[in-house]
């Protein structure tokens, strides 16, 4: 639990009082007679029982009403805090002798805000405790506070502290209307990593390129389009040969070639049986040569016939050898193709290879790597590649590329999110080493005109804009090498909105209408 106290003076506690020009206000209650309280104002921010309590109050004085402006936030979900919308708040002053003074309010002033009135009867040290009961419940101890005998004693006893850094004000009402959360900067052990460039490619066997087997005219099917889902064996197109032959002529030529080969083979068998008594060596060699020629003619005829393999004489079929998606179509309906001209490329995108290239000096560090993390240009968040995501290391190159002095390292990963082969990516390859560092969520980092900053909480509505230096990143966690210490609380969701609030017309003065 972290407690932050910020002294504010003077404190305007009257119901609905107007603030000086330039102050900001919450406007928490109906208008009433204005009265300025000379007591110093106190502010506390405490986290406990899944709650964030930001509370402002005047210094406690015997016999004086002290309204507690208690902002209760449900802080159980690290992805976004929300205001409390229902409940009862009980405020207890527990004195050192164990006696208690209890004050309560059974409804909200408005969403998230309760206003119990505490009127102490005795001076001295006491623990101030607030209990929230409702759909969200919890107990928050403010800790020890001082109850003064007189207002003058309170003024003398509470000295307003000057902030060490300029404070950015971001009100609870604004926080509650956006996706907002905070977290503690903590010391933790994360995986080391090195930076690399990389590319996503289709694995071996997951990509096919189909070319024309003959010179002919392309006849497309409905599957010959980018993005079409195909199965292994699906016909994507046909190539109808050109050159004067029709299907009948091709069939006749094949039959003639098969007959000629059979005759040549029989003649060779007869010649070998009668050599040398009846058939001379020269005649035997001629029979052998005739068979060779016949076989060549048969091969040619079969090739021409294969070009008419479609049903009804539709030409040479181009069938997908793999299941996947049509990635590229290189020829259009009616195009005249030559032998080997590429018609279509198919990719199975269900799994990918990440081919990263690390520098020569970093190569020894990545041997034994357990994974990597990469970001696609324009990608919303980094993609993790390790055993936890069904991926892992395939190989580390055995040699240094003599041109760019890098070493390839290949990872395999599943692709449920529609990543595209051919994409260039920024990569961090994890090393086997473990690094002890101050870590925060990567979402806490904001680029402020080229400066890397985070917003450190000074109180429930006050923040320091702190410039930081970043280190290794492990998934959604990033190391901070300078600018933060463990235990400081940073804005982990909504930091960019805090940045925008500072550029929307300056930092407002801190004041409230209650």
Top keywords for this entry?
disordered C terminus; alpha+beta; OB fold (Dihydrolipoamide Acetyltransferase, E2P); about 525 residues; 6 helices; Immunoglobulin-like; 9-stranded antiparallel β-sheet; conserved putative lor/sdh protein from methanococcus maripaludis s2 fold; 6-stranded antiparallel β-sheet; elongated; disordered N terminus
Would you write up a description of this structure?
- The chain is an alpha+beta fold and 514 residues long.
- It has three domains: 165 residues, Macroglobulin (MG2) domain (Immunoglobulin-like, Sandwich), CATH 2.60.40.1930; 144 residues, conserved putative lor/sdh protein from methanococcus maripaludis s2 fold (Beta Barrel); 141 residues, OB fold (Dihydrolipoamide Acetyltransferase, E2P) (Beta Barrel), CATH 2.40.50.100.
- It is 15% helix and 42% strand.
- It is built from six helices and 36 strands.
- Strands 16, 25, 26, 27, 28, 29, 30, 34 and 35 form a nine-stranded antiparallel beta sheet that branches.
- A hairpin with a 4-residue loop joins strand 12 and strand 13.
- Helix 3 packs antiparallel against helix 4.
- The radius of gyration is 40 Å and the shape is elongated.
- It starts with a strand and ends in a 12-residue tail after the last helix.
- The N terminus and C terminus are likely disordered.
């Amino acid at each position: 639990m972290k407690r932050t106290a910020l002294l504010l003076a003077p404190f305007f506690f009257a119901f609905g009082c107007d603030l000086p020009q330039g102050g900001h206000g919450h406007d928490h209650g109906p208008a009433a007679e204005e009265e300025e309280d000379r007591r110093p104002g106190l502010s506390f921010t405490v986290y406990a029982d899944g709650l964030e309590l930001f509370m402002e109050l005047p210094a406690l004085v015997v016999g004086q009403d002290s309204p507690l402006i208690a902002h209760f936030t449900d802080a159980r979900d690290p992805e976004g805090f929300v205001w409390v919308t229902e409940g009862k708040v009980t405020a207890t002053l527990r004195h050192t002798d164990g006696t208690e003074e209890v004050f309560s309010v059974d409804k909200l002033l408005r969403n998230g805000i309760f206003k119990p009135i505490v009127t102490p009867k005795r001076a001295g040290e006491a623990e101030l405790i607030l209990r929230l009961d409702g759909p969200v419940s919890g107990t928050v101890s403010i800790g020890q506070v001082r109850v003064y005998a007189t207002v003058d004693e309170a003024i003398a006893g509470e000295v307003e502290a000057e902030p060490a850094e300029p404070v950015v004000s971001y009100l609870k009402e604004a926080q509650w209307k956006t996706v907002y959360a905070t977290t503690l900067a903590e010391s933790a052990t994360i995986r080391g990593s090195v930076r690399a460039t990389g590319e996503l490619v289709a694995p071996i066997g997951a990509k096919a390129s189909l070319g024309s087997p003959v010179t002919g005219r392309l006849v497309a099917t409905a599957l010959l389009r980018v993005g079409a889902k195909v199965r292994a064996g699906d016909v994507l197109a046909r190539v109808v040969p050109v050159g004067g032959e029709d299907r009948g002529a091709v069939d006749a030529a094949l039959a003639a070639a098969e007959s000629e080969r059979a005759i040549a083979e029989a003649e060779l068998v007869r010649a070998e049986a009668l050599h040398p008594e009846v058939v001379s060596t020269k005649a035997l060699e001629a029979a052998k040569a005739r068979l060779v020629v016949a076989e060549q003619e048969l091969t040619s005829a079969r090739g021409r016939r294969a070009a008419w393999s479609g049903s009804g004489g539709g030409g040479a079929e181009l069938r997908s050898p793999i299941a996947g998606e049509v990635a590229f179509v290189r020829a259009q309906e009616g195009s005249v193709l030559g032998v080997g001209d590429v018609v279509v490329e198919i990719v199975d995108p269900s799994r990918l290879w990440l081919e990263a290239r690390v520098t020569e000096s970093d190569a020894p560090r990545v041997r034994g790597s357990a994974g990597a993390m990469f970001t696609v240009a324009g990608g919303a968040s980094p993609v993790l590649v390790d055993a936890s995501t069904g991926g892992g290391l395939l190989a580390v190159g055995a040699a240094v590329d003599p041109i760019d002095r890098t070493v390839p390292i290949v990872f395999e990963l599943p692709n449920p999110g529609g990543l595209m082969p051919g994409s260039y990516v920024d990569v961090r390859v994890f090393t086997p080493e473990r690094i002890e560092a101050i870590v925060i969520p990567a979402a806490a980092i904001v680029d402020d005109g080229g400066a890397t900053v985070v917003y450190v909480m000074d109180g429930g509505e006050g923040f320091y804009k702190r410039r930081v230096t970043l280190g290794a990143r492990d998934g959604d966690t990033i190391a901070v090498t300078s600018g933060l210490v463990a235990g400081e609380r940073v804005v982990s969701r909504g930091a960019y909105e805090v940045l925008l609030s500072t550029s929307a017309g300056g930092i407002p003065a801190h004041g409230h209408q209650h």
